[in-house]
Every structure is written in structure tokens, then in C-alpha cells.
Amino acid sequence: MHKQHGLSIIEMMVALLISSFLILGITQVYLDNRENTLFQQSQGQNIESARFSILLLEQTLAKTGYRRRPDETMEAAFPSINDPACGPMNAGSVVKRINATTFCIRYQPAFPGARTCSGDLIADIPNTPYEGAAPVVEMFQLTDGELRCNGQAIATGITALNFDYGINYNDDKRITEYTPEPAENARVRALQFAIMAASPTEIGKSAGSTVYEFWFGSAPNDKRLYTMLSSSASMRNLMP
Known about the structure:
The chain is an alpha+beta fold. It is 28% helix and 29% strand. It has three helices and eleven strands. The protein has helices at 9-63, 74-77, 210-216; strands spanning 81-83, 87-89, 95-99, 102-107, 136-143, 146-149, 152-156, 158-168, 177-179, 187-198, 226-234. The strands form three sheets. A five-stranded antiparallel beta sheet has the order 3-4-5-6-7, covered by helices on one side. A hairpin with a 2-residue loop joins strand 5 and strand 6 (146-149). The radius of gyration is 28 Å and the shape is elongated.
């Protein structure tokens, strides 16, 4: 009787079948872990972009309407202008809505060496305290997924912006209503805003986002991750 050496074809097929199941299982675990990692990274990037944008907007609104001389009237500190980017602004006006995702502000620089939000050095700032200075105009807008100030990108990954302006119609520094389109004679005292950020790449298995549908009322056409954050800020130089 001869002894059998090696593996039979049946044993080999069984081994291959078991190996295939193991490889498929390991591959699925790897893909699931990779998808989870991409989700967490994208969520972190979205939150970071949205929070950074909110921080910049809050800092901007905090200096809106600032005067180096508190005894100077708003009309004297901020005379009427016709800015190349923002258009006409009445005397005393320091906030102007341009469109749904663009607005302009005016303020006087507080100290020498100050820079605009786009990083440009502001010239001719007096060294003497309580001495007036030429107002600075800054325009914020959403363009091609970037939040820009005076044309310079300061935050990326932003899909949509929404602003509601807190206004009244007299010298009383109380907010009577919030509106997305303030009237020409309205005086803006505060701003509520929401920011929607999107991941740079598609990470989902299928198109769909509750955040996107809530914002636009329809499902997205891509598989990117969308995140929405909101905040509000009062313009402290225009409030009591």
C-alpha cells in the first residue's frame, strides 16, 4: 500500500474557500474602518472651517462702528461714501447688506499697526489716543466655497451662508426685529448667521444629507459630508 502525499483537490478547494471568506471579512473590516476614519476627519475639518469662519465674523462685528473719539457723532466719524466694492453708504451707516452672502462694514482702526481682515496694513493711524482716523471698509462674501474679505480668502470649505440682521428704525439701541433683507433706512444692531461647511471629497456610500436638505430643501447630488453651525453677535459699538 502506498502512502498519500500532499493535498487532495477537495482539501485544496476547502482551504481556498475558507481563505476567501477570511479575506472578504478582513477587507470589509478595513473598508468600514477607513470610511469611519474619513467621516471623523471630514467632520473635524468641517467644524474647524465653520468655527474659524464664525470667529472671524464675530471679531469683525465686534469692531464694526468703532470710533476713536467716543464724543464724535456717527455721522461725523463715518461720512457718506461711494466705495468701489460696497457702493454708496450714507453718513453714519457702518453696515450694509450687498446680497444674501455678502455684507460690508466700516470702523476706525483702534491702534497703529492694525491690519484689515485680509492682512493688509492700515496706513495713517494716529499715535495720539482719541484722535480720529479715516474709516476702514471691509467686504465679506462667499465665493467658490471660500469666505473672503476684500477679495482675499480667509476660510475654505464653506458651501453656504445665511444672515439675519437685527435692526430698528431710530436712535433707540434696541432690536425690534430680525430680517434677511433690511430696509435702506434700517439701523443694523446685530447679526445672526449660519454657516454650512462641506468635506472636500465624497465619503458616503450614497448621496444624502439631512443638513443639506434642511438648508436647501432638496437632496444633494454628491456624497460629501455637510455640517452646519450657527451663532449671533451684537455690534457692541452700536448697542447700549
